[in-house]
């Protein structure tokens, strides 16, 4: 039940996503058929309270994915996930990619609260960008999947915005997420979460029959977040009477599901298509 998200790995992950975002093939916005991007929208008062919106051309009441990146709650930037925004727009989905405050500036639960605020912004404003506020999905990779799961499962995070997960979230999409990581052993993570095994920091402890439908994707070779997190979480959702689709890519590591949205990798690793299919099925 290991959760191994140390700062060295976080910096390596950031370097990979930064490189991917800077390649011309991934960063280009084509005038016809590509995404319309609106960067740097403020959803709160802090400098990290910014998000980017990617909309399909001529979008009208399109389903919406609100995405949070990983980075061990210590690193990350929305600009490095442009490939994901373009991939989703190409499939008719509006994407909101949000920054949130990180350690050491904040600790749990501030980053979850920030992500909840970004979701609330989408609910209130996404219609102006061609999205349907009645078709909102939460999505994240690694630490971002954790943030998304906490918001989707525990109503208290959206309550200040007068929103409710059962009513306002159509589905949860988790990539390489730590949902049931057991006792923490790394000092920095113990500091971030205020203890080594707090029950109120484990998403799996908030699963009920009201949990939104989930698409959970992981790599079988993930040595950073034990793939068992996904298996246990999916099983708990199903045991409670909910819907959870679990997909394991046996040869992928921790970063694989996030990098699958990058250019030519989309055909080799069809996660973008699987996400789009899940969103269409649950948009109903």
Automatic annotation (TrEMBL):
The UniProt record lists the BD-FAE-like domain at 51-233
Keywords, sorted A to Z:
Hydrolase, Signal
- Name the Gene3D superfamilies on file: alpha/beta hydrolase
* InterPro entries on file: AB_hydrolase_fold, BD-FAE-like_dom, GDXG_lipolytic_enzyme
Tell me a Gene Ontology molecular-function term this record carries.
hydrolase activity
Signal peptide span: 1-27
Does this UniProt record's set of keywords contain Signal? yes
Where does the source fall among the domains of life? Bacteria
Name assigned to this protein: Alpha/beta hydrolase
Native organism = Flaviflagellibacter deserti
């Amino acid at each position: 039940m290991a959760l191994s998200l140390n700062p060295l790995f976080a910096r390596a992950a950031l370097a990979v996503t930064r490189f991917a975002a800077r390649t011309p093939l991934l960063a280009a916005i084509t005038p016809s058929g590509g995404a319309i991007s609106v960067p740097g929208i403020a959803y709160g008062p802090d400098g990290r309270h910014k998000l980017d919106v990617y909309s399909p051309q001529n979008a009208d009441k399109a389903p919406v994915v609100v995405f949070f990146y990983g980075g061990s709650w210590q690193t990350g930037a929305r600009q490095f996930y442009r490939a994901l925004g373009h991939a989703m727009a190409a499939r008719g989905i509006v994407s909101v990619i949000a920054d949130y405050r990180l350690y050491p500036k904040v600790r749990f639960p501030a980053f979850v609260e920030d992500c909840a605020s970004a979701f609330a912004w989408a609910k209130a404003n996404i219609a102006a960008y061609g999205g349907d506020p009645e078709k909102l999905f939460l999505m994240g990779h690694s630490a971002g999947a954790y943030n998304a799961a906490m918001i989707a499962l525990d109503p208290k995070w959206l309550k200040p915005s007068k929103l409710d997960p059962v009513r306002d979230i159509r589905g949860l999409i988790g990539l390489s997420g730590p949902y049931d990581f057991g006792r923490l052993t790394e000092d920095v993570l113990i500091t971030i979460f205020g203890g080594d095994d707090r029950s109120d920091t484990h998403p799996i402890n908030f699963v009920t029959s009201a949990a939104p439908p989930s698409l959970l994707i992981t790599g079988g070779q993930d040595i950073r977040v034990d793939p068992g997190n996904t298996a246990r979480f999916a099983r708990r959702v199903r045991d409670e009477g909910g819907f959870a689709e679990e997909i394991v890519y046996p040869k992928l590591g921790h970063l694989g599901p996030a990098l699958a949205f990058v250019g030519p990798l989309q055909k080799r690793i069809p996660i973008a298509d699987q996400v789009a299919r899940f969103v269409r099925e649950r948009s109903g």
